[in-house]
Structures are given as C-alpha cells and as structure tokens.
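User: Show me sequence and structure for the first protein, then do the same for the second.

Assistant: Starting with the first protein.
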Amino acid sequence: MTSEHTTHPPLDDLRKAFSDLGLQQKAEFVVEATFKTFADGVDAAGRTLARELDALFASMERERPAYPDEPGRRPADDAAPGAADGASPPPDDL
C-alpha cells in the first residue's frame, strides 16, 4: 500500500505497523481479522433477525383473535374468578 492517498493518522499508523510485520504474522492477522469481521456480522444479523421476529410475532398476536369464532373473547375470559389477581382457584374436593 502506498501513502499517496489521504487518510486518518490512526489508519496510517496501522498501515505502517502492518507493513513492518513478517509474512507469517501478516497472514495470521488477516485470517484472524477476517474471522472476527465475519463473526461480528453473523452476530449483528442474528440480533436483527431476533428483533424482527419478536416484532412480527407480537404484531400477529395483537391482530389474531384468541377465539376465531368469537373475535371479542380472549383466553383470560375463561379464567376462574380471582385468577387475574393471582389468587388460586378453589380446590375441587370441597
């Protein structure tokens, strides 16, 4: 690489340090940097996919009635009295 083009000083320092490495060290650095960049990309893609799937499933849940034949009815309607406030239903053997 030549220093004919204008860059930021830190990049120039990195280029100089890289050019001072031996061939084996350059190859190791390039392979390591390639895998690190690939792993970062896969990680970012996975996080983006998870976020989009969460949003999709949340929107599907809001749009889909719990009971297709009774659009206004929700599973909470079937709960025993007091179930919404965390109370246990009465035992059946009383």
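Switching to the second protein now.
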Amino acid sequence: MTSFAQNMLEYLEKVANANLLVNGCIHILVIVAYVGMSFMKNQVIKSRIFHLTIFLLFASVTVQAALYGNPVHLATFALLAIVALIPLFKNTLIEPVQKVHKIG
C-alpha cells in the first residue's frame, strides 16, 4: 500500500518529466523576468513584469492540471491566475514598504 506522499511524488514526477520543454521554458521565463526587473528603474514596468510572470506561472500549472485531469489544481490555479491579472487591469502598483523613521 502506497502512502499519499508517495502517490503525490509520483504524480509530480510524471507531470514534470512529461513536459520538460514547458518546464524549461518556465524556468527561462522566470530568470529573464528577474534579470529584466533588476535593471528596470520604472516601478510601473517592474510591477507589470512581475504580475505577468506570476500569471504565466499560474496559467501553465492550470493547463498542466487540465491535461492531466486534476480538477483541484485546475480550479485553484485558474483562480490564482485570474487574481494575478487583476493588478494589470486595475493599473495598480505594488507599493514598496516604507521605512519606519524613528522620531526623536
């Protein structure tokens, strides 16, 4: 009898090994986005790159879940992908945390 953890590990291994091209592209996307954001000075562009990258990550998991018939991941990551798109359409920024200045 196999445990839940073993079943989950086998599933994740099957999904990861079945689409090496997709997994490689996702890793390249994240690296390019990170490098691009580190050189950007404009906060609006940084925010858009960040939210678009997060959306693409969630969308790729959603597609993988649909292909492999995992309805829980499909629903969860589809919802997360939609939530990641909201800031792009609302034209909001991630406000940087302001430093607390000591008074006195």
